[in-house]
């Protein structure tokens, strides 16, 4: 059993926090295209939610991954995608590698304030020419004495305009593409860091997203996470938690959309009866609810394996793929049942339609998840021919 009675108290506390401190402000934050990350994260940090499974010696709760998964699922009750996404970046995308592989010194400087909510973190992997193709990044961090000098750029960086530091993946050598990269913690106030622009997105409006340039940015080598050249491996491990978080955060969000659609179609009358009374509608809603439960089972199974210390690349990739596909199916079908009101920005279903579209793109596109699975199945053509990089 993944969840026990020990999960109930933090679950209820998080539900209460979302209802009181987040959902009442979501519409305003969506209109402003940003939410106050420092203010909100400090409140979450004070309650211990930014470090549930992080080491106690750096301010975390020291709990196992099941608590982080519980949190990801509960964040789906937030009435937008942008805020939970930014929280997930803080807890499950920018900090897992740091918590696991970072030196005590770098964890004290960067992990501790991220857990307490005194610092906002972001993750810098994607570039204009290297989104899901992580091996092709071009940002360079060249050694110069005891420092790295960083040049390049990162794209689509969540919390990029508000972040205090970035977990940056950069090339630190000229060797094979899977062994020449390192993860480096870079303060965003460093000389040469330029937030080029705040990006205008289809969805996730309440979360700020930035394009960032690095022009001869000098940081000490001690800011590197773990071994030099191991950054690609660390990021692949970090992706397991990111992708599982992304899938888990969809569960309650999808259930909310289905529940709201049931209520709306029950009350909406057309052609002498409610929309819900049409078999095609109530059958489809029941089928989609079944699919959500199947996704939940897959995620919980992956969570149990992760807690047990097993590699969950296969199951996490499957969950991420299924969450993206199901998110598109559910929001599209539900929006249709809302009719003209579904096309209005004032309705939650239209926001969900826009926000959920990112699940099939960010954190590794659907096609990359399929490539990972095909590779693990031994059916990826490039591998059969011996052409894999």
Observed structural traits:
about 400 residues, alpha+beta, Butyryl-Coa Dehydrogenase, subunit A, domain 1, Butyryl-CoA Dehydrogenase, subunit A, domain 2, Butyryl-CoA Dehydrogenase, subunit A, domain 3, 3 domains, four-stranded antiparallel β-sheet, 13 helices
Describe the structure.
By secondary structure, the chain is an alpha+beta fold. It folds into three domains: 5-120, Butyryl-Coa Dehydrogenase, subunit A, domain 1; 122-227, Butyryl-CoA Dehydrogenase, subunit A, domain 2; 233-384, Up-down Bundle (Butyryl-CoA Dehydrogenase, subunit A, domain 3). Helices cover 49% and strands 15% of the residues. It is built from 13 helices and ten strands. It has helices spanning 8-22, 26-32, 37-46, 65-74, 82-93, 96-101, 104-116, 231-267, 279-307, 313-338, 348-356, 366-377, 381-384; strands at 121-124, 140-144, 147-158, 165-171, 181-187, 193-198, 209-220, 224-225, 269-270, 273-274. The strands form three sheets. The protein has a four-stranded mixed sheet with strand order 1-4-5-8. Strands 2-3-7-6 form a four-stranded antiparallel sheet, with helices on one face. Strands 9-10 form a two-stranded antiparallel ribbon. Strand 2 (140-144) and strand 3 form a beta hairpin. Helix 8 runs antiparallel to helix 11 (348-356) and helix 9 runs antiparallel to helix 10. The protein starts with 7 loop residues before the first helix and ends in a 5-residue tail after the last helix. Residues 385-389 have low confidence and may be disordered.
């Amino acid at each position: 059993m993944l969840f026990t009675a020990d999960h109930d108290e933090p679950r209820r506390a998080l539900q209460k926090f979302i209802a009181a401190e987040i959902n009442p402000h979501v519409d305003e934050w969506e209109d402003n295209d940003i939410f106050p990350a420092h203010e909100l994260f400090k409140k979450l940090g004070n309650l211990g939610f930014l470090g549930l499974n992080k080491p106690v010696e750096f301010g975390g709760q020291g709990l196992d991954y099941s608590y982080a998964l519980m949190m990801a699922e509960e964040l789906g009750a937030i009435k937008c995608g942008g805020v939970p996404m930014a929280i997930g970046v803080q807890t499950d995308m920018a900090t897992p590698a740091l918590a696991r592989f970072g030196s005590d010194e770098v964890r004290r400087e960067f992990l501790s304030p991220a857990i307490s909510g005194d610092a906002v973190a972001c993750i810098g992997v994607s570039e204009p020419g290297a989104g899901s193709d992580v091996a092709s990044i071009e940002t360079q961090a060249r050694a110069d004495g005891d420092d790295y000098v960083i040049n390049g750029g990162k794209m689509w960086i969540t919390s990029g305009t508000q972040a205090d530091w970035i977990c940056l993946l950069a090339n630190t050598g000229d060797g094979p593409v899977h062994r020449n990269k390192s993860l480096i913690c870079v303060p965003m106030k460093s000389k040469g860091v330029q937030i080029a622009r705040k990006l205008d997105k289809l969805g996730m409006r309440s979360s700020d997203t930035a394009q960032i340039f690095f022009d001869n940015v000098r940081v000490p080598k001690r800011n590197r996470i773990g071994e030099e050249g191991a950054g690609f491996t660390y990021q692949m491990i970090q992706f397991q938690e990111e992708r599982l978080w992304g899938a888990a955060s969809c569960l309650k969000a999808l259930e909310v959309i289905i529940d709201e659609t049931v209520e709306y179609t029950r009350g909406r009358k057309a052609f002498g009866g409610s929309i819900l009374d049409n078999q095609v509608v109530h059958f489809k809603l029941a089928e989609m609810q079944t699919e959500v439960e199947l996704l939940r089972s897959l995620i919980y199974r992956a969570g149990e394996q992760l807690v047990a210390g097993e590699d969950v690349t296969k199951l996490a990739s499957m969950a991420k793929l299924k969450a993206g596909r199901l998110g598109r199916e559910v929001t599209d079908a539900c929006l249709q049942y809302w009719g003209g009101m579904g096309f209005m920005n004032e309705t939650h279903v239209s926001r969900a339609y826009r926000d959920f579209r990112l699940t099939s793109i960010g954190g590794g596109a659907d096609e990359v998840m399929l490539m990972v699975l095909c590779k693990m199945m031994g059916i990826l053509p490039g591998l059969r021919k011996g052409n894999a990089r």
